[in-house]
Queue: 2 jobs
Job 1
Amino acid sequence: MKGRIVYLVDETLEHPVLQSQSLAVMRRLIDAGVAMDLLVANGVDQAREVDIARGFLGAATNVVVLSTRYTGSSVLAKGQRAIRRTLTRRRAARFVHDAGAGGKPIVLHARGSAMHLGAYLRARFKDTRLVADVRGDSAAEARFHLAGLGGERRAEMLDRLEAQALSHADHVICISATLLGEVRKRFAIACPATVIPCVADEQRFFPDADRRLEARASLGLSSEPLIVYAGSIGQWHQFEATLDTFVAVALRDSRARFLVATRDAEKARAIVSARGELQGRASVRDGDANEVARWLSAADIGLLLREPHALNRVACPTKFAEYALSGLSVVVSEEIGDLAGWVRVLDLGMCVRGADAAAAAEMCQRLILRNPEGHDRKSLAQRASSVLSMGARLRDWMETYEATLRGAAARTRLGP
């Protein structure tokens, strides 16, 4: 690839999703010969951000922390944030100017809200090209978090800002076909677009008989069916509905066991301990991605429930890919992005409407009864891999960059 990719993020690299969906992908692209730089705005601490990035990308990749977060709602805090936004733009512009001095064309890959910085740079540097990586429906998230007129006004503001940013895009990436449809309907984008779902690293998440035996032994399990929820337990994760499902299965099947694998382990333990029906049958574990992969190896069924809200209808939770590549049958809400289609076409499990715990428990029980000796985990993982593995999707990122660079070259040749 003749060009250089400058990857822009607008949040701390401490977020697990940034690590699994940006840094890990960048590492694979760099290994495939793609020249990449990383610019981080709104980090937590400069040294911390660089340390996280280096752990994935190594020492050879340029990593620049443009700014760190300034929190608060006072007039002074708002002024400080405005000053930092200005400095962020200046530092980013200086980097892009210097990076382009060598004559290599530059593609700005702007993830999520970083598309606003990317659009500014695209407008300032005419020889650059912008890939806008849309990760969700910002307006729907605003309405979810802030009810009433305040949420509506914020949603309208975010739509105006995103329309302006996307007007500068040369290519759009969306995490689901449903999200791309919404973006096209709302913003009338004219540039090419590609759907690349949230993926899992097939070198970390895969069926392994020895790892499964070891993990199950550490949980005190032999042949008992194990249902797992892996992920956060925040506002939209439907953790209570997940536990309701566990309880409903427990009342039907005395052998069933349950596992929560989360970075919010202390909070999860407190919530689980209040469920008397789960005492002695549910475990909570925490750990990094390697530990989560270990716990998924122990499980048989992965549970992923969401309510039918606009923000979920365009989503693509990373845990779905991690479940499937680990060989788990999945029970998922059918209103989550493109997941229902994959479940049915690839035979990955079963779907339920919304966060219906009773229906989810019924689906879990059907899967247990259908495969009393366990299902073919390797076959399920292979079916999922073509859609949800990082390795299979790597070509999509590379082709997006190459097509964007070809467009840039064509415009350079044909322009005045």
Note: The first strand starts at residue 4 and ends at 9.
Job 2
Amino acid sequence: MISKKLLYLKLIINTLYWKNYFSYTETAESVFSTYGFFWAVTEITENFTPYTIKPFINSNWSLVLSIGIIVGFFISVYKTLPKTEAHYKFRNAEIFAGFMINDFFKIQGDKVISFNTDAHIKTHNENGFISEKSIQGQWRKAISIDLTNTETLVSKSINDEGYTLPMQVGSVITLKNDGVNYYLLTLTNLSQTGHVVNSNFTDIQNSLYSLWQYLH
């Protein structure tokens, strides 16, 4: 799993951050806030201690100015970094939901993979219907099983669960690889050309309910 520090570094060096998140207004406010903090410290030391830093500031004003700009800049970057994760607890239930920006297949634990009712496995580069960019397509790349064995294991799981093709939306089958259970949850119907048809929010709700029942 990618560490938060590395993830934030990747965000900062990405041009999208500077185009969509970084704020010059926030930077200016942070710089002035930094100068305000310097001024407050100066006044406190001047009025409540026998020490004063005004002579140092007067003789090194360019250094203080530079420090204020640099500190304000980094404060601004920190404040405008996009959230990498968030969590929500459902009311009156011991259920948490959350999102995280990370490599899904490097996160430890079992995983739910969106699947199709006809159990198509082949990706576009295998003359199939599944996009390599989809969750199912990326799942194919992540597991250490070749195409033939994947199709065999999926067919076996379908038979073990008593399903026939096409499966109903909300059907769940399990494929295990390298100690991880992959729950293939049928969310979509595919046309003969591989396009998604008859997929709506109600299907998603029913599928999640079926998954909950399956796991319990």
Note: The chain has a mean pLDDT of 85.
